[in-house]
Predict the 3D structure of the following.
Amino acid sequence: MKGQPTLSFFIETYMAGTLKSGRVKSNVNLSKKKFAIVVAEWNEEITEALYEGALHSLIQHGVKKSNIIRKNVPGSFELTLGALREARKKNIDAVICLGCVIQGDTPHFDYICQAVAYGITEVTIKTEKPIIFGVLTTLNKKQAEERAGGKLGNKGEEAAITAIGMLIN
């Protein structure tokens, strides 16, 4: 449709490193779209910052606050089931999954990251709805902080932009 960004514009502008602009240019009215944001409680100071970024971005793009549903889950591993439950609801248009997994001394990090990525992909395929992977997978807490509102932007905001992009393209 005229006035909508192309997918390549979206990827180039929003997915290459830090978010260059806080807005998606589109003629699509998002006021009636309903989003679920599933937030892991583990690493709460990071996931709360991601949530605030996603919430702000959705509202900035015209999504009504009453059309944004928040669901908490204990940790990133549980994001998959939380996302599936929300995506199965007929009135939900997109689900944003927000979590943070910080590498430790054991391979636990690798198992969790792989399981979450696979699980979110499976929910997307099963429900045919945008299920957005907004999970930080960092080597340390400093890297997580830099991506949750620090010098590298807010990946929660980028996850919201991605959800919008999937709905308008």
